[in-house]
Amino acid sequence: MIGRAIWFTLLTLLALLATVAQVDRRSRYDGELASLVPSAYVGFASEQRTRQALAQGYGERALAEAQRLLRYRPLPANHLTMLALAEGMQSNAASATAALEVAAARSWRDPLPQAASAQAALTQGEHTIAAQRVSALLATGELPDRAGELFARLVASPEGREAMAARYAAPGHWQANSLTGAALVARPPDIARALELALEMGAELPCDRLLRLAEDFVRRGYAKDASRFQPVNCTRR
Known about the structure:
With 237 residues, this protein is mostly helical.
């Protein structure tokens, strides 16, 4: 249902991965060493080979390496993300979409599929799914600018605010991230209403973060909005 919208995000992800591939701390081999490993002995080097091919724009080689990587190591979600990008480079939209959706569902720690799925869900008006993906992206602490943009889009609508409020009210420790960074990107009235709904749903949000956000709203001239969620009897930590 949201596959077409995910496909439209692949071009953005390709550009992003070109940068990520150069600085990715999860790389297990130096790129030059990886290129020297014979194909019959790919092992962990295949991951770096796939990243290299994607970054250099070699779609056919990237797809072959990604498929080989998944045969050896099928479980990591980021391997599915790389397969999705390689499929996208080869204009295999259906395969790219399927791989990206599985990657997003498999692990919240990989930010790329979470961002793509959130974008797709927002495009299709699937606010509950979008809230799940945005909260997962915020939990990673990565791609902060993209996370803030998606968060702001989500809480801009009543349905999105309600969906995000439900995520705030659910158990978890990611909420503090959105109260310091992403919340400053959204329109104050939008985030204020979302937080008010969350508190009504029983959300237990860190009061010191709420206090800082409320004080920031007051300084910016949004005292009325700040009053919707400003905690009482709260001290800074």
